[in-house]
């Protein structure tokens, strides 16, 4: 009887600790992803193609994570075969497609609009979950979706961006699809260790980009010329290291942990905070002060995220 009572009282503590771990991992992941634009921009300006930046970024991240990932596997190679479908989807769509499409999109539309298009993928996540469970989201969740999207629009202010380039629109929507796959696949229950899954997935994504480049489907163009970042001239490999270690290895690994704890719907909306972190990084690194609309939009966005989380908690 005492053991049963202890299990009952322990369960809420485990759930709370899991939620804290999930939110912490998801927020740190969003902050890491938020550095991508600032560090990729000087490389693209110096002559690097989007495909080359992403291939090196994902490839280096995979190398960094591969050794601890294989150690965590402990020789259970059959797990890789058992998870080949989610690994393939994660690498090709969640890694390669999402990143290459976003960097291609921002060559034709402003970065803010590219982010707005990419994060429309969270609507695909909500739709997919509704189809899979055959149950509509709760009213509170739907309100949170609307509020969060409204906050995102306020922060990015797409009304001041002029005419849309159809090429940027197409790439942005493809990035949205890749982002949706990233969250949906990451939320699946699996026995493969997190580091192993991310390392192998990013390796697959890197191979997919290289194959596409060799086949002539996308340019793989790189240069060793110095880049200018925050008014300072740096070697080309400095921003690449940040993109690989922080904006890829840490971001993808922590993002996977966050989705595993929070679920695809909540984690995808927490991922919206990447936009807020991108604004913060632009302020700290580039001296671009956020205006009042961005601050208001940030509050609205966070309120929407909280509503989605609460709605999911009540319906589960």
UniProtKB/TrEMBL annotation:
A Gene Ontology term for the protein's cellular component: membrane
UniProt-listed SUPFAM superfamilies: Multidrug resistance efflux transporter EmrE
Subcellular location: Membrane
Cytoplasm recorded as keyword: no
Membrane topology recorded in Swiss-Prot or TrEMBL: Multi-pass membrane protein
TM segment ranges: 20-40, 52-75, 87-106, 112-131, 138-156, 168-185, 192-214, 234-254, 266-286, 292-308
Alphabetical list of InterPro entries matching this protein: AA-Vitamin_Transporters, EamA_dom, EmrE-like
Glycoprotein among keywords: no
Residues annotated as domain EamA: 24-156, 167-307
Keywords attached to this entry: Membrane, Transmembrane, Transmembrane helix
Pfam families for the chain: EamA
PANTHER family referenced in this protein's UniProt entry, alphabetically: EAMA DOMAIN-CONTAINING PROTEIN (PTHR32322:SF2), INNER MEMBRANE TRANSPORTER (PTHR32322)
Protein family (similarity comment): Belongs to the EamA transporter family.
Protein name listed in UniProt: Threonine/homoserine efflux transporter RhtA
High-level lineage: Bacteria, Bacillati, Actinomycetota, Actinomycetes, Propionibacteriales
């Amino acid at each position: 009887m005492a053991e049963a009572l202890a299990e009952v009282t322990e369960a809420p503590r485990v759930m709370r600790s899991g939620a804290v771990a999930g939110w912490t991992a998801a927020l740190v992941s969003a902050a890491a992803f938020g550095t991508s634009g600032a560090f990729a921009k000087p490389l693209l300006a110096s002559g690097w193609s989007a495909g080359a930046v992403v291939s090196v970024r994902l490839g280096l991240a995979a190398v960094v994570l591969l050794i601890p990932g294989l150690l965590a596997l402990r020789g259970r190679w059959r797990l890789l075969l058992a998870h080949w479908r989610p690994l393939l989807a994660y690498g090709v769509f969640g890694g390669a497609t999402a990143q290459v499409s976003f960097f291609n999109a921002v060559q034709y539309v402003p970065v803010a609009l590219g982010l707005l298009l990419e994060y429309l993928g969270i609507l695909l996540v909500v739709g997919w979950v509704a189809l899979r469970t055959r149950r509509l989201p709760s009213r509170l969740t739907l309100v949170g979706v609307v509020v969060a999207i409204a906050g995102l629009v306020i922060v990015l202010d797409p009304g001041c961006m002029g005419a849309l380039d159809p090429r940027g629109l197409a790439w942005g929507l493809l990035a949205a699809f890749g982002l949706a796959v990233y969250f949906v696949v990451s939320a699946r229950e699996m026995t493969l260790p997190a580091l192993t899954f991310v390392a192998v997935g990013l390796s697959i994504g890197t191979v997919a980009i290289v194959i596409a480049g060799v086949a002539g489907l996308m340019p793989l163009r790189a240069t060793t010329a110095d880049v200018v970042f925050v008014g300072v001239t740096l070697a080309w490999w400095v921003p690449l290291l940040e993109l690989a270690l922080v904006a890829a290895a840490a971001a993808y690994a922590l993002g996977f942990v966050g989705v595993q704890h929070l679920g695809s719907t909540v984690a995808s909306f927490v991922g919206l905070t990447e936009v807020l972190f991108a604004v913060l990084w632009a302020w700290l690194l580039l001296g671009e002060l956020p205006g009042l609309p961005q601050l208001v939009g940030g509050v609205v966005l966070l309120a929407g995220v909280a509503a989605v989380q609460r709605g999911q908690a009540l319906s589960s």
